[in-house]
Design a protein that fits this description.
The protein is α+β, with helices and mostly antiparallel strands and 967 residues long. 24% of the residues lie in helices and 22% in strands. Helix 8 (342-348) packs across helix 11 and helix 9 (357-367) packs antiparallel against helix 12.
């Protein structure tokens, strides 16, 4: 490893690297060496040639028949059969965001409601004696019985002459050899009813039992053989005898022409239709065409099964044939989504803790049409991947239930209230705990007040866990229910005032079941600050520090040095300071896609390490603040040095520049006389040039000499200057890192918008509006604009004229040092932290941007086309207080137009020369596509049109140079 010459004297030496190698191994050293500022040695051409020769020697050995040498531990770097993946790059962690928490959010003592509540007793939780209501039948009996008689019947000839057939035969001149008699449909003397009671048909078992019972009453049992298959067709079956299910018999095929009716799904629900297909083929060879009554929609049928069975849908809106000849029609399956209609049922039942088959049938029959949810929807609900099987009922999957409750709240379907009433009716006999939980869920979904009885019961649950009365024997079951109940709650439930009882109960249950604090896990959205009293808080906050040592995040007390495995003191790199009332620090991982994991607590008094995610960010919540900790890899333009102060980046260019990571937080703001006039909150951390960093850390923000006005408002820090009574406000734009250009998936992007990472290491001032005609006229004495208006942007000014304007303005206001923004500064300010095509989101409207609204962006709706400019503050500003960065007029930048690089860059200034200057932002005449944050245009420096203006900036003046700007 090569040691840089400019490393500080206190930096680790080669002896430290040897100790690190002994403790952690070669792979860890390859990652960690960069942390200490060391660079891997370059491989010379001679070394490369030597490696190639060694490989040729090994090949020659193999060809000569010499046995291959088995790799040893030291040969691991050459690769083995098991494969090896390259080590992930070293990540350096820093606080990206810091959000202070109010003192009112800390609960250090138990709430009075908890202390006043009475614990539960033995008689509170048992269920009352009660039976649920009868669900509606799958199909009305008045429609089914004619169909059953046709399916299990035969034609019988009577002693009455069929006069109509006789007259027709005589009229046609045919010879009458026998007098035709009238035929009528009757029950066949022998028939088979095949009943399938597979587990996949569990929701329909009651319907099957009811149909068999009614058929016995209507037809009688004589000659009707009821075959019961428990798991599809086989050579053994059970006869349908009440109270007897253990006497198996051998199945025999019926005689040819015997009517056979099958009550089954034919194995389609669990995708095991092979045995039924073979069974249908056997029946066909025996001369039997079975009729199937399936609790499935036609979209679930199989073409192969329809060759051997004549299926009919078993549902309440179906029309069934009443004649035997109508059963011979061939049926063809339809196509469609197998889970169609399930979303309607799940939305209506979103607040049910448990879902019974009868409840599903009742909701579907009373509230939905078959076009919305048919019998196939009811069947597939039991196969839905977002539901769990809980014995004889269903339960929403904790990972998906919130989306259905959000949908119910968003759609505000009036049938939801009726569905809630049916749930209450069906669950009236359940435990008071289930009923109280469902009432709380309904109140949260509908954003209404919870039932006082349900809230009071939840407080009694919390009081029982808090006091643990010795005579109460259901404490283990109560804790288990509280934990299960927590998994079913909304994320926002834990910040709901009426959810405080559940939060208290969960904290107590978790703490009593898991004494080790570092293993406590809570649901997403849980706020531990509301239950600090249950986590052994101290009366005074303790000071801790978050530090990085190698690839570890550790918590130490203030000033404590961390000790390695060999006793060597390693201070680590400072990341953040924390103040804690408890030993429990809350952490949560966030994936790059924005998905949040569960909330964990780590006991920082005993266990000091936090997990480091390979991807994504770490959300850390203390008692006073919330931190977003993110990792960065070494930039191509610099090397990272870490020490007790924090993360520092040193550029590779000459002369070298040093930048420090500035943590987000509050900084004082002083006027020119040194009086404190406010606090400016930096919401996100950033890399900042060393002199500017030290000034902010030591002195805060001070009013610049050139500024006539200075202060802080809702958008942030601002300064003002005045010329001839015309005032221009500038906003301070903090340093930062962002992705410049557009991603490949952005609609209607152009090829010159290559997305790449840009780091701006210096803050700069940017005018909150485009230059007005009033300001231009005050400096230049004339107004070139085509569309007049003193508060409208000046236009028809070319790039060269803008330079003349800026030069005269700087002469009249010494120290002002204005310029045009660079293209990177302009896009960074335009986005204001957004990654979407526009600062306002994925699309825009004429209420936000002045553009050709008749030609919207992508799939946006058409809107107003004003056909003129508007005043510079007529439309909303972005999050940093900058008006009309999209639309109104294109704005000149100081860069020459050129191709974007693909690699990360720092403080880019564009090409050194060119033919055209960059234009950004779109104009009043542009379509929606041209107003995107990443859209690039250009114009010759002497070109002028009525759609081009500019915006003033103050800060960097060229590559490697600084103006008198800064904060």
């Amino acid at each position: 490893m090569n040691r840089p010459r400019d490393l500080p004297a206190c930096a680790p030496g080669r002896g430290d690297l040897l100790r690190f190698l002994a403790l952690h191994g070669a792979d860890a050293l390859a990652q960690g060496a960069e942390l200490f500022g060391y660079q891997p040695p370059e491989v010379s051409e001679a070394q490369i040639d030597l490696c190639l020769r060694e490989e040729r020697d090994e090949t020659e050995e193999e060809e000569s028949g010499v046995p291959e040498r088995q790799p040893s531990v030291g040969d691991a770097s050459k690769g083995t059969d098991t494969g090896s993946r390259p080590a992930s790059p070293m990540r350096y962690y820093r606080v990206l965001e810091r959000t202070p928490l109010g003192e009112d959010e800390l609960r250090l003592t138990p709430p009075s409601r908890l202390l006043d509540a009475l614990p539960l007793d033995e008689a509170d939780l048992p269920c009352p004696a009660w039976s649920p209501p009868e669900p509606p039948p799958l199909a009305p009996w008045r429609r089914l019985w004619p169909f059953l008689r046709a399916a299990l019947g035969t034609l019988r000839y009577s002693h009455q002459v069929d006069v109509e057939r006789l007259v027709n035969r005589l009229a046609s001149g045919r010879l009458v050899t026998a007098i035709p008699m009238r035929a009528k449909l009757g029950w066949a003397p022998r028939a088979q009813l095949i009943v399938d009671l597979s587990l996949s048909l569990y929701p329909f078992w009651e319907d099957i039992h009811r149909l068999v019972g009614q058929l016995h009453k209507l037809r009688g049992k004589a000659g009707l053989e009821v075959i019961l298959f428990e798991a599809g067709p086989s050579h053994r079956y059970l006869p349908w005898e009440e109270g007897r299910r253990d006497h198996y018999r051998t199945y025999r095929l019926p005689e040819a022409g015997t009517p056979v009716l099958v009550l089954s799904d034919l194995g389609l629900l669990d995708r095991r239709s092979g045995p039924w297909l073979a069974f249908g083929q056997r029946l066909q060879r025996a001369g039997v065409r079975p009729v199937g009554l399936l609790p499935l929609a036609e979209r679930h049928w199989s073409q192969a099964l329809c060759r051997y069975f004549t299926p009919f849908v078993w549902d309440h809106d179906q029309r069934y044939p009443a004649h035997r000849h109508a059963l011979r029609r061939r049926r063809s399956p339809a196509s469609g989504d197998p889970f169609a209609g399930c979303d309607h049922l799940l939305t209506l039942l979103a607040d049910a803790v448990r879902i019974e088959p009868g409840l599903v049938r009742t909701v579907r029959a009373r509230l939905l049409t078959t076009a919305q949810a048919d019998v196939g929807s009811e069947a597939m609900l039991w196969r839905h991947p977002q539901l769990l099987h809980k014995g004889s009922c269903l339960a929403p999957h904790p990972a998906h239930q919130e989306q259905w409750r959000d949908r119910a709240a968003r759609e505000a379907d009036p049938r939801k209230a009726e569905a809630d009433a049916l749930v209450r009716l069906w669950h009236a006999g359940l435990s008071v705990a289930i009923r109280a939980e469902e009432q709380m869920l309904r109140a949260h979904t509908h954003d209404s007040e919870a039932d006082p009885e349900a809230v009071a019961f939840m407080w009694r649950v919390a009081a029982t866990l808090y006091r643990r009365p010795p005579g109460y024997t259901h404490l283990p079951q109560l804790r288990a229910w509280v934990v299960r109940m927590a998994e079913r709650q909304h994320q926002r439930h834990w910040r709901w005032e009426q959810g405080e009882a559940q939060a208290a109960a969960l904290a107590l249950a978790r703490r009593q079941v898991t004494p080790s604090s570092d293993r406590l896990v809570f649901p997403q959205g849980f706020d531990t600050n509301r239950v600090l009293w249950a986590l052994d808080p101290a009366q005074e906050p303790r000071r801790y520090q978050l530090r990085q040592r190698g690839q570890e995040l550790l918590i130490t007390t203030a000033g404590e040095a961390m000790e390695g495995a060999d006793g060597f003191k390693m201070p680590g790199s400072h990341i953040a300071d924390l103040q804690m009332y408890t030993h429990q620090l809350e952490w949560q991982q966030e994936s790059p896609e924005g998905r949040l994991g569960p909330v964990h607590l780590v006991d920082i008094h005993h266990r000091r390490a936090l997990p480091i995610p390979e991807r994504g960010r770490l959300l850390i919540r203390g008692n006073r603040e919330r931190l977003v900790v993110d990792g960065m890899t070494r930039p191509v333009w610099g090397q990272i040095l870490q020490g007790p102060v924090g993360l520092t980046v040193q550029t590779l260019e000459q002369p070298q520049r040093v930048m420090h990571w500035l943590e987000p937080g509050e900084f004082p703001v002083y006027d020119r006389k040194g009086r404190l006039i406010g606090q400016h909150t930096l919401l996100q951390g950033c890399l900042m040039e060393e002199s500017e960093y030290r000034q902010l850390r030591q002195q805060g923000f001070r009013q610049p000499d050139w500024a006539d006005g200075f202060g802080v408002d809702g958008y942030g820090l601002f300064s003002e200057f005045s010329i001839e009574g015309i005032t221009q406000r500038l906003r301070w734009i903090p340093p930062g890192r962002f992705l410049m250009g557009s991603p490949d998936g952005e609609p209607k992007r152009n090829s010159d918008e290559t997305q790449h990472e840009v780091t701006l290491t210096e803050g700069f001032w940017l005018a909150d509006t485009a230059c007005t005609q009033a300001l231009w006229e005050a400096v230049m004495g004339q107004n070139p604009s085509r569309i007049k208006g003193i508060e409208r942007p000046v236009e028809r000014v070319n790039w060269d004229e803008v330079q003349t304007f800026i030069e005269r303005l700087n002469q009249r206001k010494p120290g002002l040092d204005l310029c045009l923004p660079s293209e990177a500064q302009w896009e960074y300010a335009c986005r204001a932290g957004a990654t979407t095509p526009f600062h306002f989101g994925a699309n825009i409207t004429p209420k936000q941007v002045n553009y050709r609204g008749t030609h919207p962006y992508h799939d946006g709706a058409k809107g107003e086309f004003r056909e003129t400019t508007v005043e510079v503050k007529a439309l909303p500003a972005n999050a940093w207080g900058l008006y009309q960065m999209h639309g109104n007029v294109f704005e000149w930048c100081r860069d020459w137009y050129g191709e974007h690089p693909a690699e990360p860059v720092r403080d880019p200034e564009g090409p050194e020369a060119g033919d055209a200057r960059v234009l950004r932002g779109g104009a009043w005449i542009s379509n929606g596509q041209s107003c995107r944050s990443a859209f690039r245009s250009y114009g010759t420096p002497d070109g002028r049109t009525r759609v081009i203006g500019f915006r003033l900036a103050r800060g960097r003046t060229g590559p490697g140079g600084r103006g008198a700007g800064g904060a």
